[in-house]
Amino acid sequence: MIERLHYIEQRKHEGLSLIEIQHELNITPYEEIDVQILRIKMQDLEHDVSSLLEQMNKQDNKDIEKIKKNVSPESIALMQSLLLLIHN
After folding, report:
1. For residue 41, how many C-alpha atoms fall within 13 Å in the half-sphere facing its CB?
2. Backbone torsions φ then ψ of 63, nearest 5 degrees
3. By the 8 A CB rule, do 85 and 46 touch?
4. Around Cβ 8, how many Cβ atoms within 10 Å?
5. What's the Cα-to-Cα distance from 27 to each of 5, 14, 39, rounded to whole Å?
6. CA-CA distances (angstroms) from residue 71 to 3, 52, 63, 75?
7. Per-residue pLDDT tens digits for 18-47
């Protein structure tokens, strides 16, 4: 990756436009994401969230309230979004 950046900088100094460098490197505007890796990561997340929910269900109400107080609203929103993604 660093080599690619050095190459791009070198070619810019030589007067090539970014479009020309892009064609030289045969770079698509948006490089494809490896969908298989993304699926594996989503499965891992699903497993982690399921384990967390299972553990929370085993806790008593006092412990659950303690956990809720220590979790930020952003984290709660993220967990809810992940659950929606997993179940859709």
Report:
1. 7
2. -65, -40
3. no
4. 17
5. 13, 19, 24
6. 41, 13, 13, 6
7. 888 888 887 655 555 566 777 788 888 878
Place of tokens 């436009």: 17
**The two structure tokens encoding residue 67:** 């956990």
Token pair of 82 as six digits: 């992940």
Residue with tokens 């594996």, as numbered in its chain:
40
Residue type, 26: N
Structure tokens at 26: 């045969």
Q: What does pTM read for this prediction?
A: 0.39
Alpha-carbon span 62 to 64, nearest angstrom: 5
